[in-house]
Structure formats: structure tokens, C-alpha cells
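Quick illustration for those who missed Monday's session on complexes.
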Amino acid sequence: MKYKLENTYLKKIGNIADENNFKVFVVGGYVRDFIIGISDKDIDLMILGDGIKFAEIVANKYNKSLDAVYKNFETALLNIEDHQIEFASARKESYERGSRKPHVESADLNEDLSRRDFTINAMAIGINKDNFGILYDEYKGFEDIQNKIIKTPLDPEKTFDDDPLRIMRAIRFASKLNFKIEEKTFEAIKKMRKRLTEDKVVSQERITKEFLQILMTDKPSVGLELLYKTGVMDIIFPEISALEGVEQRKDFHHKDVFYHTLMVVDNISRKSDNLWLRFAALVHDIAKPATKKFIEGTGWTFHGHEELGARMMKKIFIKLKLPMSNLEYVEKLVRLHLRPIPLAKEEVKDSAFRRLAADAGEDLVDLLTLCRADITSKNTEKVSKFMNNYEIVEKKILEVQEKDELRNFQSPVRGDEIREICGLKPGREVGMIKHKIEEAILEGEIKNDYDEAKEYLYKIKAELLNIRSET
Ligand code: ATP
Ligand code: MG
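Prediction with adenosine-5'-triphosphate bound:
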């Protein structure tokens, strides 16, 4: 099979290889994506011989210097415009138990391909003049792409034992490409899964990075279900696998909490590429197992799961080493995810909308996106009724918000001024007064306006001083 590689870098680098007597192949993810029909800005090159030396020659030709050199792995990195080119000497790897850093030896083309994680990642295409566009496919990766199969080129157990991160990669590729994991590979994942967290062979950061990449695929439920079915979820995120089998009220949900959650994550992923919104969808019901109670006549209840769920987040963020800057956002969405539901009724007062708008602040739109994704009923009548309710809630909130300008809400009279007017030192009292002003605005007693707030402050100051003089 001969392919037409259009990429101008590959042509130019191929010429440089000919001029300098190097044999060079494009390999790995680039070839996989090329065959699938996805264009890739990451180019992995394999060089027979000294890959770093060749990388230097190429960098020179482009009047650039290498962006990174890893002598131990015989690899080098060169960024040209928006392309990231990795040069690697063809190599064999042998692993010592307890480390995923292999001992590296130079090798030929097929030996290099055999050390790669999956057959779909173990193909090469020649870029020298005499073999430009020719596919080298010792492990039948092409066929596996056609059949949508993830499988290891060599013995899967050994492959995962050598580098357990490949377990996460298998599931990520399955989710990203919507491929099946071949049975023997699947069984090996199940068997070797504990290696992921054993002996600190794989860092938490790498596991988390793969996990978040799974969450960023078009249909994350594919990967999340595989994580669950292989038992990997139990090891890396047990709070999520605990959702499986947690029954819910049949009149609202036809699935257990785990499968409901998968649907919510898929729903939200169709609407948003915001990783943390997707993460919030994943964890929105995380405290359901802990709050589950059967009440005669009502069925299963989960009172307070939104608050407990929000409180569980910090520990989870720490354990998964997630960036703490996103903690507050996720906590907020989990905490508020039920709040819009009762607001669709006719008799709801403006103050309820004001409060939600104030609590959600800038994240109101995301909260409503989460609420909509949370509707997973099979009953189309119910779905359209619930959707319509959120339509109403959103409209009303926007109306109230427009009226009050409540985004990023806080008292229009600030702490400094409160202290000055009331003759107070910094401390709890100032905060209490500020809170009182905010409450008055939320309740609609005064407008969200500086003059009205100041007038109100003078009024409560008098009350405050009266109380003081009485005591
Ligand atoms: P993507 O860039 O979309 O994550 P990729 O397949 O290009 O996918 P990279 O991490 O860029 O992944 O690696 C490039 C190639 O190196 C892979 O296609 C694979 O052949 C090989 N490779 C990467 N990581 C491993 C690993 N842990 N074990 C074995 N081979 C690997
Ligand atoms: Mg890549």
C-alpha cells in the first residue's frame, strides 16, 4: 500500500534524510490518524540510527535549534510553526519491575514497532525517496483500524505489566475512536489493573491526565464504562464506581446512578467542551450512595446529596491532583444542581431567582446547562416538560438579573465605607452589616443601587446603635 502524504514537512524532512543517508519513517499516532482521516499536528518520526543527530541536521536546515533533547530515550523535539515533531532513534526496550522507564537499545524498524502499545499505533510510513508513502504494518494495525479494534502487538499482560499507563491509554483510545478493546487485551487490563497504582510505577499526574482526556472525548461514556467494567475505576476513582447499582425512584429515573451519570456526561459533552463542566456532570450525584434512604411511600431519597457532594470535592481534587483553581467552580455546580428545579412554578417570588443568580454568579449559564443535561428520562413528554421548565427559569432569572444587574453580586456599599460610616474597626460586624445590605437587595426591599444601599445603611446603623445603647 502506498499513501500520498501531503504534509510539506514530511517531504522536506524526507529529502534531508536522503541527502544525509538516514532512513526515516513517520510512525505512531500520526500514521494512525492519517489512516483514519484525521490530520495531526504532532508528527512522530523514527530514525534508524542516531535520531538526535538527524534532528540536529533538520533543525539546522530550518534555522532553528531543538526544543528538547532526551539523551536517555534518544529522542528530540522540534517545534516548527504549529507542528510538533518528535525524532526518536529506532529502539528496543526492556523494563525492570517497579519502573516504567525502560532500558533502551537501538533496533531495527520491526523491533521498534513491536515495543509500541497498540497495533493501531504500531505502523510506520516511509518518507525517504525510495519508500515515500509505503506503509509498514507488521502487526496488522490497518486491519484493526478497519475493524475498530484496540489490541497490543505482543502479549497484552506483559505489555501492561511493563508499563501500566498503557491501560489508561487503551481506554482513552477506545473512547476517543469509539473502538472495541479486543478480548484478550481487555482481560489483561482486568488482570493487571492493580499495577496502575502499585509501587508508584505510574504517577498520579499521568493517570489523571489520561482520565481527563477520556472525559474530553466526544462520547466519554464509552471510556467511563470501560473503566468501570475493567475494574480500573475502582482503583483510580472509587467514588464513581460506587454509583453503580444505586437504585433511584423509578418515576424519575430508569437507570441506576452510575448509568444515569454516564448519560448526563454524554449529554453535556454534546453541548460543551468545558472540561470542568464535564467533570461537574460526572460528580454531580457523587454523594447519592452516602445519602441514600428508603422512605415508605416515597421510595429512594438522597436528601442533602448536593451539599455533601460539594463537600467531597476537595478531598477528591487533592487525591487526583486536579488543579485547585477549578475546585470552587465544581463545588458550586454540584451544590446548586437541584436549585433551579422548583423555580419553574408560577408562585415563585422574584427573590428566589435573585438568590440563585447571586449564588451562581458568572456560572449561571453552566449551571443551567448541567440541569438540562441531568434530564435523562426516557419519557419524551416528561423530557419536554422539564426542558420547558428550565426555559421558564432561565428567562425569569435573566429578567430579574437584567433588572438588578446581579452578576458577581455584592453589596454596592463596600467594607471601607461601612467602617467609616459606622465608626467600626475591621471585623465581624462589618461583614454582618454587608450581609444585611445584600439580603435586603435579594429580598427586593431595596434596589441593587449605591444610593439606596447607602440610605439603607444609615437606617440600619441607627437600629444598630439603638440596640447598642440599650445594652
Ligand atoms: P495522541 O498524541 O493522540 O495522544 P499518540 O498515539 O500520538 O496519541 P503519543 O503519546 O504522542 O500518542 O505517542 C506517540 C507514539 O508512541 C504512540 O502512537 C505509540 O506508538 C508510542 N507510545 C506512546 N506512549 C507509549 C507507551 N506508553 N507505550 C508504548 N508505546 C507508546
Ligand atoms: Mg502524538
